[in-house]
Design a protein that fits this description.
Helix 3 runs antiparallel to helix 4. The radius of gyration is 16 Å and the shape is flat. The longest helix has 18 residues, at 55-72. It has a domain at 36-91. The protein has helices at residues 2-5, 18-24, 40-46, 55-72, and strands at residues 29-37, 83-90. It has a two-stranded antiparallel sheet. It has 91 residues and is of the alpha+beta class.
Length: 91
């Protein structure tokens, strides 16, 4: 939804469907583990420009949100994460 409503994104930008991509390329790759990451710290620090957060405010809250992000990392899953890191090996 974010891609559709935020004018900073182009009309051809969208999230990736990794399940579909893995099905499509299963004959070319073997897949390692997927790691789901990113929550409040990712959104409010890494994406501060998208959220139009002033730099001075980001500097003030970043250390606290990094600690929160670290504490929440064990809870990250497919539906609760902002991004995924996936390992693919060419066959």
């Amino acid at each position: 939804m974010w891609y559709r409503v935020d004018p900073l994104f182009l009309s051809n930008e969208a999230s990736l469907d990794f399940k579909r991509l893995k099905r499509t390329f299963a004959d070319r790759f073997t897949f390692g583990p997927d790691h789901y990451l990113g929550s409040i710290g990712y959104l409010l620090i890494f994406n501060s420009l998208v959220l139009r957060v002033p730099l001075w405010l980001k500097r003030a809250y970043a250390p606290a949100f990094m600690r929160v992000e670290r504490a929440l990392s064990a809870l990250h899953g497919k539906r609760t994460s902002c991004f995924m890191v996936s390992q693919w090996r060419k066959r």
